[in-house]
Fold:
Amino acid sequence: MKGRFRSPTPPLIAGLAVTLAAMAGFSWYTLGQIAGLRKLQTTTIDRNRRDSLQLLRIENDLNALALAMRDMVNGDEPYPLQAWRGQFERQKRDLDDALALERKLAPEGPNADRQQYFAQSLNQFWVSVEQVFALAAAGEGERARGLIRTSLEPQEAAITATAARLLVQNNEAEERAAARVQDIYARVERDIYLFLAAVLVAVFLTSLYLISSNRTLFARLEALSSQRSALSRKLITMQEEVLRSISRELHDEFGQILTAMGAMLARAERKEAAAPFREDLHEIRLVAQGALEKVRGLSLALHPSILDEGGLEQAIDWYVPIFEKQTGIRVRYEKSGTSPEIPENVAIHVYRMLQEALNNVAKHSGVAAAEVRVQFRPESLRLEVEDHGLGMGQKKAADARRGIGLVAMRERAELLRGTLVFERPAEGGTRVRLSVPIGETE
Amino acid sequence: MTRRDLLLAGPWAGLGWAGVTGGESPGFRLTDVTAQAGIHFEHDNGAYGAKYLPETLGPGCAFLDYDNDGWQDILLVNGDGWPGHRTGRSTLKLYRNNRDGTFTDVTRRAGLDVEMYGLGVAAGDFNNDGFPDLFITCVGQSRLFQNTGKGTFTDITKHSGLMGHEGFSTSALWFDYNRDGLLDLFVCNYVKWSPAEDVFCTLDGKHKSYCTPEAFRGSTCWLFRNKGDGTFEDVTAASGIFDTSSKSLGVAMFDYDNDGWPDLFVANDTQANKLYRNLRNGRFEDVALEAGVAFSEDGKARAGMGVDVADYDNSGLAGLVVTNFDNEMLGLYRRGRGASFVDQAPGSNVGRVSRRSLGFGCFFFDADLDGRLDLLVVNGHIDDTVRNVNRETRYDQPPHLFWNRGAAGFRDVAAEVGAGFASPKVGRGAAFGDYDNDGDLDVLITTNHGPAYLYRNDNTAGNRSLRLRLRGTQSNRDAIGAVVKVYSGGTASSRTVKSGSSYLSQSELPVTFGLGRGQGVERVTVAWPSGRGEEYKRLAAGRYEIVEGKGIQKA
Structure:
């Protein structure tokens, strides 16, 4: 069988392994993409954002300085120019702090030169600021204001422009990073679709394979079942033929011999006058008579000749009282309808099933009464054997033994294309119901 | 009565002292008593459609005892109509406490029915005559009113030397920065603005809307030194305070470096906050950057509005709260390592709850008298059409009342302490004071172009308090700058007598310590601004007056 039918398990295991490997590979790939995305966001986008914040802070400081210089030039405040020194020092501290942070956050590369220029410009600016306050301290307010107009303000404008350019570069870098992020998203999305498609194809192929395997499996099972049934039927039929042959041999051969022996012994008994010898002959004749009866009984047990001679109805009529006598179980026997002509090959199986059902009552039900109902119809026969005893499934060990008999009953029912049902009546016990079509058997 | 008389014995033996109540109920209710107290005030912001920036900012309020009778009176600042658009007469309001839970409007009688576009108030006894004087910050010329001690005030702006200092003045405070026993005056200015310099700003591209401060140049704060003869000297430049980039809205005084000299924190709108460290020589140095309070945690200058300072975690170190714009959350700074602060709000319930609010007035106060300072924040947007551009933002917003649960952090219980308290308001000023002298702290809130609200605190937990009113002799008479520490049950808490804080407003000067169910405290120390230190032991719950160098007595 192994050679003819291949198990689907190894291919299925192989498929599962391939699927798991594909999922693991895809997960690894996706995690790699996410890690790359995270790295891109933290190293580029977040850093750019924080850098831009510092550049904005620098721009704000420069703007505050520009406004302060305008106030100084315009003389809007009722305070001497020296009063602004503190504000300039504060702005310088804040600018220094912002620049230090910006340097840490700024991306490497082309910005480095610009930052150097930025730092140099600022240094120059603070030198000029000191000159302005030195002039103011020396009481040369107008010269100080002139220096603001001619030197400080242009310097501040140039530094602000540099900061603005750095901000623009940051924005461009951010846009590039955003485009890369979009690209990663698009790639991952495409790969997810591809993976899903591959999974769907794999699922489809596996399903096809499973359907095909199942069909083959069930066809094989059906064939095996048919073979087994045919074998069973053949065995049962053969058994019945053997039993009938033995029964006939017993009845016809041994019965005739014993009958002849009895007749001869009776004749000899009558001829022989001597009393002792006649008594012996009489005794031998009685033994032969007993043997003849036993042979006839065995013959009937193996195959009731009444079945062949009188049909199923008479065989049942004959068997039920014998069962009562043998087992002491009272049988309420009901019969309805007129028995049609039932083929011999049907009758023997029905008779055997009745025998088996009643034997089961005697062996397993534990009751002293049973019911047998036979219903004859023109196209079918219905037989019911019912007891209200323990019922099936109550005695597990007994059921195991009864199992073989029940299997044989089912085989016989199948042989007759009939139905055999085991039921549990409302009162408890077991009801065996057999329904057999007549004239349709093999 | 001397402090020795207060060394209580006998009846106190075996009784519990200051304790802390437990449970999840806040243990107090804030009941709206505005109408029954006789407060009928409506803020006039002068709005007529021009959408001038000052219209969005006012008004402030104050608890002060102007007649020195031991009962807190109420002052509510008012705006005015713009020139050519005045529809009626608008003045600030002074309500005298009738000592029965009601107030009487004495504005006219007190000589304060003066028209001006007022924004904030600072009350302090600058001439040490025992009666608090008033400085009203205005758009244009701010005013100094001297208390005559006879229930009236005299406008001495011109005589004091403050005339001519015109600006867009917001919060102000009195403090003795040079420790000469005389209160000096610090004034915040917002931006350079006048109706003539107004610019067109718009949210929808068609209609004018209120501008943000970025549209205007900053304006320096002012520091005026009290010369002791009723006049003031402008020491803005000499002290190093001068800074034309500032756009200041809130100011609080505290001793940042614990050297006994008052320092200042100034909240700036869209500009770096300032922390002016007193250099003890008449000059200040801005250390906000080094202290970590200039910017938000990510280095952004936020829209600072109101501010308060207090030892809210009883650690012995002052913490800071700064209210900001919506989507910025408030800043709750706790002293970190060394001299720097760490903003606790971003990782806490306070930040999460306040993120959507635009905060203005704020103060720490022990609302439930459990010994831990709670935090009140009033909110409200600046633009009445904000909903048109942002469906999720309201113009009127509910206040936050962060109940301090110690190690469990702050929980907003505004909706749990009274039916109307959490109703949305266009909140601006906020102050606290015990107007009914029942030992707990009542709340006064002003709203922009709306009414003022007086909430009576009804302590339901049965907690007690120790209230101390300080009177300086060598120090300034209001004892502003004095630090009072209370020790009990192994814990210490402190309060500073202060002017300013919150937003455009001033709370009462007496200090209040919640004792929980405790009967009293083991020890009280006072560090006077003059440098003198005093100590009192075993004080029972109740009200007391401490006079510098002369002892303590029941009030």
Notes: The two ends of chain B are 11 Å apart (CA to CA). Confidence is low (pLDDT under 50) at residues 1-23 of chain B.
